[in-house]
Specification:
The protein has 178 residues and is mainly α. 54% of the residues lie in helices and 9% in strands. The protein is built from eight helices and two strands. It has a two-stranded antiparallel sheet with strand order 1-2. The longest helix is centred in the middle third of the chain and has 22 residues. The N and C termini lie far apart (36 Å).
């Protein structure tokens, strides 16, 4: 297993804040770890892992947030060529929750590649900043699954910005059995 380190101390703080907001949201809604886990198809142990660790697959994090009736917004910030949080892009977002999560991840990757290009950086330069190869950066920009939150943060730092992490509350509360 590859262990990634943060390129900036604020990235860990951002993940801790996100984790705390999600945990607080769960408790505010009155859901136990077991109940929310059952609702989204994860074990209580998996929920405990989400609430105590900070290195997550974005897809699992999205699923957890959706179970709490929230959406995680991830986009490059403080970079040339933005803004990368264009609300009109949501007009094309699928309505099916699983497809919408995949779409959000693909939008993140498209935005990261666009931000890299706007910063006039090559994949080789980004790879050098990450301690990786040009082909690894190209593969990351084209990946379809398995995105890690820390990897997206590291990529943003390597191109001179940061990854914005936001929670948006959705309209209807989720129904979770106690």
């Amino acid at each position: 297993m590859i262990r990634m380190t943060d390129l900036h101390p604020d990235d860990l703080t951002a993940r801790l804040n996100l984790r705390n907001m999600l945990t607080e949201r769960r408790t505010d809604l009155g859901y136990s770890q077991t109940a929310i886990g059952h609702h989204i198809g994860l074990s209580q142990g998996a929920i405990a892992h989400l609430e105590t660790r900070t290195n997550w697959h974005i897809a699992v994090l999205q699923r957890y947030a959706r179970g709490l009736n929230t959406r995680i917004l991830l986009y490059p910030a403080d970079l040339p060529g933005g803004p990368y949080d264009d609300p009109t892009a949501d007009l094309f977002r699928p309505t099916d929750p699983d497809r919408a999560d995949q779409w959000d991840q693909q939008q993140l990757l498209l935005n990261l590649a666009a931000a890299r290009q706007a910063a006039q950086l090559t994949q080789r330069q980004v790879g050098d900043a990450l301690g990786s190869s040009e082909s690894a950066v190209g593969n990351y920009e084209r990946t379809k699954t398995g995105l890690m939150l820390i990897a997206a943060q590291r990529y943003c730092r390597a191109i001179g910005g940061r990854l914005a992490l936001e929670l948006a509350h959705l309209d209807e509360p989720a129904e979770v059995a106690a």
